[in-house]
Amino acid sequence: MHFLSLGDFSHKELRDLLDHASELKARPTAGGDALRGKTLALVFLKHSTRTRVSFEAGMHQLGGNAIYLSEDTSQLGRGETIADTVKTLSRYVDGIAARVFGHEQIEEIAQHAGVPVINGLTDFNHPCQILADLMTIEEHLGSLRGCRLAFYGAADNNIVNSFLHACPLFGVQLTVCSPPGQALNPVALAAARKAGENNAWEPRLTHDPAEAAADADVLYTDVWFSMHETPSEEGLAAYRPYQVNEALMARAPASALFMHCMPVHRGEEATDGVADSAQSVIFDEAENRLHAQKAVLLSLMG
Ligand code: CP
């Protein structure tokens, strides 16, 4: 059993993870030392602050430990294959959390691993982040069902794709507000339509920031370009109308939340005034990574 995509799970399975995460947050000792003697390997080919530290802290809190491997400090950086690395690690550890580039790399890791694998971000999706985000929305709004979430930024984005997997299951209405010419990821969109078959769930794609904000319960944004891309001035200019700033928040209901998976490129996709406002729940999202991932770790390795 792996945790590679929210699209692999039923509503009940994700509901159970969210409930367990909330219990672990309310009562931090609830997990006991269920992972005593167990080790998680963190194989990270990209930078990370939240994902790395929340997994390391989570393992420690559950009585286990974590070992971090980057490309620079392991033989991965000297050409050892992912398959050989993963087969070797599986002889030492009880789980692997990996942050990689292409989604096919996490699938390759899962194919060769003899232990559970957790997706710590790929170019396609970011399931741990969205599990924590669902938890955060529920904490602040009381319920996910009927929540109107407006995402600002790239339409084919790993955050959007994981929302496409989860929103149909939880009855969250998703609006994606992106520069003209962009489209939702066809694979994630097909999965969303299949998951939402019974309630005819459909996301909305718009290019009008004010229209998307008008009835939003949540305004969510992410960096405009992924961490290995170097944007051109023209590319940045296309996104500037989609910045979540004070003027855009004023078009939304006063009760609307501001969310961001972080790190925030302040002054680009969001202003300081919004990121640091009373409506911002970005640090709750970051904290909930810990609780949500502890629930995932216990479900896979407990
Ligand atoms: N949101 C997120 O995944 O943060 P890091 O890149 O710091 O892990």
Topology:
Elements: H1 11-26, E1 39-44, H2 50-61, E2 65-70, H3 82-89, E3 95-99, H4 103-112, E4 117-119, H5 127-141, E5 148-152, H6 158-170, E6 173-177, H7 186-195, E7 204-206, H8 209-213, E8 218-221, H9 233-239, H10 246-251, E9 257-260, H11 272-275, H12 282-301
Parallel strand pairs: 1-2, 1-3, 3-4, 5-6, 5-8, 6-7, 8-9
Helix pairs in contact: 1-5, 1-12, 2-12, 3-4, 5-6, 5-12, 6-7
The protein binds phosphoric acid mono(formamide)ester (CP).
Residues 48-51, 121, 129, 261-263 line the site of phosphoric acid mono(formamide)ester.
CATH topology of the largest domain: Rossmann fold
Mean pLDDT score: 97
Number of domain units: 2
Order of strands across the biggest sheet? 7-6-5-8-9
Radius of gyration: 19 Å
Which shape, going by the Cα principal axes? globular
* Beta-strand content bin: 5-15%
Structural class: alpha/beta
Q: Strand tally, please? A: 9
Account of the protein in words:
The protein has 302 residues and is an alpha/beta fold. It has two domains: 6-126 and 289-301, 3-Layer(aba) Sandwich (Rossmann fold); 128-285, Rossmann fold (3-Layer(aba) Sandwich). Helix content is 42%, strand content 14%. It contains twelve helices and nine strands. The strands form two sheets. It has a five-stranded parallel sheet with strand order 7-6-5-8-9. It has a four-stranded parallel sheet with strand order 2-1-3-4, with helices on both faces. Strand 3, helix 4 and strand 4 form a beta-alpha-beta unit. The model has no long low-confidence stretch (mean pLDDT 97). Bound molecules: phosphoric acid mono(formamide)ester. Phosphoric acid mono(formamide)ester binds at residues 48-51, 121, 129, 261-263.
